[in-house]
């Protein structure tokens, strides 16, 4: 069909990626240039056990606000990118890069900006924390909105247009419902990412000052330096686990059942087996019954009511069709283009000036270590990834026929993926560094590897679980009916069927790995600072500015931190974009194309 | 004259070299006619239908509807899709209502009208069902009810029966003819795209054969068989044979 061609997304947009990488980098340079400034007042809250519930509530409300902002952001940006071809060419690469670079390294700089705008008071700090959580949540959600809209059958779009369905009626009856299943899945991932970065968001380091906002993340962060580190740590981690599991049972799973009605699958045979499993469980158990009765059914009723009411009000909302005069259209398009180009020019000039300014301020001798540091870090992530695969593939294959095990694994992967690395420090440090007597170097290396695995493996597991539950039941029946031996069935059906999910998991896992580096290559625990050579450590040193936290090394001269940060991030962006573009995305596209399961 | 296509060309400008789909197309349709557009796949039949509806703008030439040049989407048309294009999260009634509400009809009137057309296509009793609970034939009935309910002057159909099983499509074809002939219903003019020549000869007053690359009108044949038509009559097979041989020459 001819109209298909027009709506098909661009497959190879390589130049767009490099342009976007440059833009993100220049934006980063602007931020890095602001690093040296700003003085803030010091807010410190000592850690106390009785504060824990209050802290949890504060963190939760921060997360909710950041999530709502992310939701609005992802809907508007995703819809804009899906509708506007020119915007799509810039927005997609920018999102992709933001998603895969460790934004944590810009926290101090972003903070300086927020402080300059909102002042150093509590309000400004709260605002910064929310913005920081937002940076961990938003990108993948925006992607999912874009992808859902792109995957929408073209005939549905045509039907909407030919019947004149527009404006808010179109948004609520078509656009939003299409996005809901994808948004839901990505919301779960985003919440995990938000919790993961929570400590970094609530203990804000600006220049040589620590500003602590009361919350679960800062509770965990301060626990390591308190009098009872292990006790407080376990309490904090336990509270976090409790919140994550409660949300899983009372929000995400019921929403998952509800979201089934928005899936674009017409045939029954492709219904995922996982869904049926969860639904069955929800109908039997007592607690789930409550969730069904008080969450899912009312939501379903409310949705139906809303859709009904929408029909009632749509007549009032529908705008009259206006024939726009050609010159006006042309003027509007021209002005849009002008604004776009102006933004790019300002970014390029401003970013270029700042890059020069930052680097001219002095390049730290540490910058020479960057290539080696990146190579070492990459090997560490690779090792962590391979070790994760080594236990995940057998586990997933084992759990394939056990719905209960699948559900348990997905809950576990979600709650452990939410755990900030700092909550694991006490285990890591006491086991690997203190008790195993491996010497200072290898003990820290092992600790780092363990923390990295925690940042990598859950993404792999989560995606593999999704992949395995999407294998159509009729194919499994067919291979059973043919009497295929077990090994052959794995080789011919199951491994090919989960390969696309494996690649998706790999890309997200490496993204998670780069983000975790900064927390795992340098560890500050009980007033001691451990580190191994790697880009995460370098960025940590650079981003906390002139004063590395309790560093054993000499502090960096004032101007050099900005240039180190900029060079480190620039090299990282280059490497990650090149790897993604040249290797992973191609492998993924190949796997999706070769082994997709719709026929 | 209800519809006139004047020197229409359509060129797609995507990443590769520009692809000309249609060239120098001239076509007039009078009110009350049943026209079938036939041709090999990829000849531009569906594109023609979308140009008539205003979903696509022509690269050159103009579409006139009731002697007025068409700007944007023609809301006096309604389109029926090959794959139904129903929203899975809306019930049968809600799917039909959506089109009516888009035209600003008050809810109470819209509900009455939706119920009337749902009944008309034989879906009485399935108003609250969701599309995934319906068979292919029933889904297409919803698609037809949605199109009829806006009471269009021109009904456009894009291979409406090709995703259905043979028996269902025979039934639906007969019902379509009844609807078209029904003086109580507003629809009097139908343009239907199909690749099934027998279907075209059975239904149409006029078969327009599109072919070639780029596509253009190869033949315009009036089907002078009295209704009801019988597939095994000699006259019927003569028409089918002659269209087949025209198509083979393209």
Architecture overview:
- The complex is a heterodimer of chains A (599) and B (250).
- Chain A has 599 residues and is mainly alpha-helical.
- In chain A, 76% of the residues lie in helices and 3% in strands.
- Chain A has 22 helices and four strands.
- In chain A, a hairpin with a 2-residue loop joins strand 1 (203-206) and strand 2.
- In chain A, helix 2 (14-33) packs across helix 4 (85-100), helix 6 crosses helix 8 (167-196) and helix 12 (273-284) crosses helix 13 (286-317).
- The radius of gyration of chain A is 25 Å and the shape is globular.
- Chain B is an alpha/beta fold and 250 residues long.
- Helix content of chain B is 35%, strand content 24%.
- Chain B has seven helices and ten strands.
- In chain B, the strands form two sheets. Chain B has a six-stranded mixed β-sheet, with helices on both faces. In chain B, strands 2-1-4-5 form a four-stranded antiparallel β-sheet, with helices on one face.
- Chain B starts with a strand and ends with a helix.
- The mean pLDDT of chain B is 88.
- Chain A binds chain B through residues 1-3, 5-6, 8, 10, 153, 155-156, 158-159, 161-166, 169, 173-174, 177, 261-268, 303, 307-308, 310-312, 314-315, 318, 321, 323, and chain B through 10, 12, 14-15, 21, 44, 46-47, 50, 53-56, 71-73, 75, 77-79, 81-85, 87-90, 94, 97-99, 101-107, 110, 130-132, 146, 150.
């Amino acid at each position: 069909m001819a109209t298909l061609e027009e709506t098909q997304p661009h497959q190879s947009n390589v130049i767009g990626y490099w342009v976007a990488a440059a833009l993100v980098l220049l934006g980063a340079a602007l931020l890095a240039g602001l690093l040296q400034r700003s003085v803030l007042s010091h807010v410190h809250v000592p850690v106390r056990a009785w504060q824990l519930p209050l802290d949890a509530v504060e963190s939760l409300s921060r997360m909710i606000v950041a999530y709502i902002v992310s939701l609005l952001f992802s809907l508007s940006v995703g819809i804009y990118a899906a509708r506007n071809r020119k915007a799509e060419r810039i927005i997609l690469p920018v999102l992709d890069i933001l998603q895969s670079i460790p934004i944590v390294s810009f926290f101090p700089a972003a903070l300086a900006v927020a402080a300059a705008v909102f002042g150093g008071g509590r309000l400004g700090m709260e605002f910064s924390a929310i913005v920081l959580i937002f940076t961990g949540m938003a990108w993948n959600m925006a992607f999912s909105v874009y992808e859902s809209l792109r995957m929408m059958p073209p005939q549905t779009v045509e039907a909407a247009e030919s019947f004149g369905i527009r404006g808010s009626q179109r948004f609520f009856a078509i656009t939003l419902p299409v996005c809901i299943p994808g948004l839901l899945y990505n919301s779960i991932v985003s919440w995990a990412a938000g919790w993961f970065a929570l400590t970094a968001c609530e203990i804000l380091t600006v220049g040589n000052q620590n500003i602590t906002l009361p919350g679960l993340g800062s509770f965990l962060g301060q626990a390591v330096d308190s009098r009872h580190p292990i006790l407080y740590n376990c309490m904090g981690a336990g509270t976090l686990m409790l919140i994550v599991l409660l949300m899983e049972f009372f929000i995400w799973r019921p929403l998952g059942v509800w979201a089934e009605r928005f899936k674009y699958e017409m045939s029954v045979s492709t219904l995922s087996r996982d869904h049926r499993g969860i639904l069955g469980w929800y109908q039997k158990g007592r607690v789930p019954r409550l969730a069904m009765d008080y969450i899912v059914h009312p939501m379903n009723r409310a949705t139906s009511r809303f859709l009904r009411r929408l029909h009632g009000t749509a007549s009032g909302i529908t705008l009259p069709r206006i024939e726009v005069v050609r010159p006006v259209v042309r003027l509007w398009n021209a002005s849009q283009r002008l604004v776009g180009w102006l933004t790019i020019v300002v970014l390029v000039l401003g970013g270029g000036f700042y890059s020069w300014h930052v680097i001219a301020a002095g390049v730290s001798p540490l910058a020479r270590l960057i290539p080696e540091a990146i190579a070492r870090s990459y090997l560490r992530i690779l090792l962590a990834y391979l070790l994760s695969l080594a236990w995940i593939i057998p586990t997933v294959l084992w759990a394939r026929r056990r719905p209960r095990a699948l559900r348990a694994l997905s809950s576990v992967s979600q709650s452990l993926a939410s755990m900030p690395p700092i909550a694991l420090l006490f285990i890591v440090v006491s086991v690997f560094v203190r008790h195993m007597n491996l010497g200072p170097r290898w003990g820290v290396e092992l600790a780092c590897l363990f923390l990295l695995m925690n940042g990598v493996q859950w993404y792999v597991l989560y995606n593999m679980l999704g992949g395995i539950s999407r294998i159509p039941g009729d194919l499994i029946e067919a291979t059973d009916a043919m009497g295929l031996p077990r090994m052959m069935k794995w080789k011919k059906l199951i491994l090919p069927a989960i390969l696309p999910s494996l690649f998706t998991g790999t890309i997200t896992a490496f993204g998670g790995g780069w983000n975790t580096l900064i927390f795992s290559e340098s560890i500050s625990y009980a007033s001691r600072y451990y580190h191994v050579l790697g880009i995460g450590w370098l960025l940590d040193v650079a981003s906390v500015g002139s004063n590395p936290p309790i560093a054993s090394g000499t502090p960096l001269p004032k101007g050099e931190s900005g240039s180190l940060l900029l060079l480190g991030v620039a090299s990282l962006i280059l490497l990650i974009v090149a790897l993604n573009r040249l290797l992973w995305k191609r492998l993924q596209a190949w796997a999706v194309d070769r082994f997709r399961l719709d026929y | 004259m209800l519809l006139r296509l004047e020197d229409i060309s359509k060129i797609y400008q995507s990443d590769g070299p520009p692809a000309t789909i249609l060239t120098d197309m001239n076509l007039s349709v009078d009110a009350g006619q049943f026209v079938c557009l036939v041709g090999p796949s990829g000849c531009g039949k569906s594109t023609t239908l979308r140009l008539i509806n205003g979903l696509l703008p022509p690269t050159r030439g103009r579409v006139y509807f009731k002697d007025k040049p068409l700007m944007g989407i023609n809301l006096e048309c309604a389109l029926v899709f090959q794959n139904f294009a129903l929203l899975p999260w809306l019930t049968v009634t809600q799917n039909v209502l959506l089109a009516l509400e888009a035209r600003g009809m008050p809810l109470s009137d819209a509900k009455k009208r939706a119920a009337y057309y749902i009944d008309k296509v034989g879906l009485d009793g399935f108003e609250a069902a969701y599309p995934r609970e319906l068979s292919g034939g029933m889904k297409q009935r919803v698609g037809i009810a949605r199109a009829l309910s806006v009471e269009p002057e021109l009904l456009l159909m894009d291979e409406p029966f090709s995703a259905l099983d043979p028996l269902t499509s025979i039934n639906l074809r007969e019902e379509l003819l009844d609807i078209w002939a029904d003086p109580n219903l507003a629809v009097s003019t139908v343009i239907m795209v199909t690749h099934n020549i027998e279907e075209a000869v059975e239904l149409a007053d006029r078969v327009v054969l599109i072919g070639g690359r780029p596509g253009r009108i190869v033949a315009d044949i009036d089907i002078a068989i009295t209704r009801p038509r019988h597939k095994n009559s000699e006259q019927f097979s003569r028409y089918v044979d002659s269209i087949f041989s025209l198509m083979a020459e393209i």
